[in-house]
# Entry
Amino acid sequence: MLSRLTGDPAFEHAARRALSVLYESRSKIDLVGNHIDISRGEWIFREAGIGGNVDSYYEYLLKGGFFFEDYQLISQFRVLYKAVVKNLQHDFWYIWGSMYNGNPSLPSVSTLDAFWPSLQILIGDIKSAGRTLSNFYSLISHFGFTPEMFSLLTGQVSTGNEIYPLRPEFVESLVYMYQATGDQMWRNMGKQVLDSIELSTKTPCGYATVSNVVTHQLEDKMESFFLSETTKYLYLLFSDEHWIFDKGVWGNISVTPDNGDYRVCAPNSFGYTFTTEAHPFPAGVLGCCYSRQRVEEDLLEQIYPDENEEAMKGGIFNFPNRLLNLMYGETKSDDPSKPHPPLCSSLLHFLVKTVGAVRVCPAWEDPQILSQIGINHCPVRPWYAKYEMYGIEWSRLPGKKAFRVINKNNKK
# Structure
């Protein structure tokens, strides 16, 4: 993000180099460890899991891939995700195991693991996400909170890990699940979390950490992430028309020629992606200061080897072109009497180039026309819309609740 806003690629190159080294250091069964020696490139903690110290790695691979439209990062996440599900999932809990053979080493789950369903929802694995969220809810129903660590072997809170420091991960995943399904059940779960926090942790000067979820004894401490993340996600969970969930499909896009390339700037368009610390990053400003980089054609050929109307064989996600056309293809103006604007979103252009969707923006390849373009009113998508096309489960949801943008346009 810093590189895109400053035009200095050094930051992005350093981050990508680190991601590349981590991915290449995975085991033969595609699992990664928990700690790595950055000077020697050797794993120090060789246990694989999804909790503390490795959770952000998974999150930034997927969200970084979506945010920057980088299919290489998404494909890396896909490989690691399949390995995690195959080797570490047990009854939709995720435990720690050896990164070399997947053998269980710590049959316990952490409250930090509750972030995982939010990623599953983004790739369309709704059923698995729901099962894991229900597992965590069973702990909340029993204790009132999620303990820092819970042993699946004993069915008890792990000794020394009875604390609940008002963490946000469970509520974070509820936000994604409710936005994806519209099912009130997920809000009801959030309501119980809210009630527990209000009834058991409120003090005259704030909200206290629960030092023991069994006795509900409090500790004289309130972590900063409670205000910056937990309360934010609780607020968003119960917000019906918040602007961050914008369901509009049009926005102002400014295109500026830049040394043979172009800068595409669309503030308040394309929606937002949350960082691991719940900071919403606007995707629409990525091209405001820094020319959009061309996508390598050889990578595109690997991702989209087949451009016919059938389901793409061998592609990363195996989703049909008709779904892409539905979401990004033949967009219609909000006023049928007006012609389509000469320039549309860069994301649409990206898909037109790669999957042969209907070309509605002929001006893209004409520098003379491009130089005359200022600000255009073009089709855009809300923050979660471009995630929807990646998961096969989206199209199977009852009532197609996931495709809210499309459904809203079709409402009478």
Q: What stands out?
A: The first helix runs from residue 2 to 6.
